[in-house]
Amino acid sequence: MPNAIATMMLLVWPVAALVFFQRLPLHRAILLCLIGGYLLLPPVAAFDLPLVPDLDKFSISSLMALAGCVFVAKQPVPMMPRSWVLRVLTAVFVLSAVPTVLTNSDRIVFEAVPHSAPIVFFHSELPGLRLRDLASVISSQIIVLIPFFIARRYLSTPEAHREILLAFVIAGLIYTVPSLIEIRFSPQMNVWIYGFFQHDFAQMVRQGGYRPIVFLPHALWLALFMFSAMVAAVALARTATNPNKVRFTFAAVYLFGMLVLCKSMASLAYGLAFTPVIALASHRFQVRLALIIALIGCIYPMLRNAHVIPLDTILAQVEAISPERAQSLGYRFDNEEILLERAAEKPMFGWGGWGRNLIRDGETGRILSIPDGHWIIAFGSFGWVGYLAEMGLLTGALALLYLALRKMPEREISPTVSCIALILGATLMDMLLNDTLVPVTWMCAGALLGYAERQLYPGLFAPRKALFDGRQEIDTPPRQKRLRPVMD
After folding, report:
1. Within a 10 A sphere around the Cβ of 52, how many other Cβ atoms?
2. Which of 89, 176, 98 is nearest to 133 (CA)?
3. pTM
């Protein structure tokens, strides 16, 4: 159980976030609120309030970033993309909760004495979704998109992109300190500070040593973040001049060593594959590669559902590399098979929350299946409609970026936008194996979408008010721009 320090951190973080927005530039306050909350706040711990989504490290960070922009910085946060396709996907993502709730009003009863009707001796039950749950589910969907909306508006310039990569590098370097402690002494940081361990300790043991987890939900999340920090350092080293080029190069080498120590085959493979691409390839090629990877992440669940993926061949290839990893992957595939059968019972809108999408023992209600990949969780909870809307938003940001860069000269492309695109693409690929969709991922997608919209729709984010020469500029169409004196 979380201790008093964990509860205090969740209570103090909103105050700290407001201070960030008062003392720091807007883009840095946003980054510190989202990335800092992700890395520092206690996992699992949450305030379970009635009729509203659980307030955990993810939702608190997102809500405070929104509050800081609107109430402290006095800056609006537009809630709809410019592209009508992405507008439709945004609306579907939020409103898909309505049919999901309406089609899951039935409760699921676990009978202590099966088939005893008309008298039912039940052990426990999962409640059905009621109309009053509708507001909670819809608001939860909106909270998920807050980093996407904020980054689209305020983290979508080349300067902001460099700040994003710099934040990844700095945070990654700082996080190596507790990570190295856990690698040496076992994953105990969350126990020492927050009073509990957030996952299965056996999964932190690999190759005769330990995998660090610190304050994240799983060691795989930390490895993926180290990958992001490492490739960010590579991208900054490519564009920097001496002595910064040397510093970022050393940071990249050090973070790559940390990535190896994280003992995650997937994240290490991403690092080995993407590092030379980021260091040498053109920015347009990097964005194209990120889009292809994202499309594979979208199409795989469809092919998986159609049972056309050669699972045995994949397992045989992995077993040739590591029998231990092949066993882990085979366990994931087995769980996906039974969860797909469960999801097929309600394929359009899913089973909703309360763990209704999981396989449980018919008598005790004990969970028999463990969902790993985000795609099977999203598909089981919100069906194809919710899943495609979510993946459509994430992949759509990359698609729009690719369209925006097609005719741009290479020298005019932001030298850092392609690295963020590859980080997003790698995360979408990783979501096939793990539930690694976090607010930072939505932040990256929003930053890419906003940059693409700035290229396709010049003037879209023109400031509403700008002071110059003692006058105030009003954001109007070019031929209708007018000036009025500033009122003291």
Report:
1. 14
2. 98
3. 0.91
Supply 303's token pair. Answer: 């092919």
Q: Do the beta carbons of residue 211 and residue 219 sit within 8 Å?
A: yes
Tokens of 341: 């059968």
pLDDT tens digits along 186-206: 999 999 999 999 988 988 998
Spatial distance between the Cα atoms of 310 and 322, rounded to a whole number of angstroms: 18
Q: Could you read off the pLDDT of 274-301 as tens digits, one per residue? A: 999 999 999 999 999 999 999 998 888 8
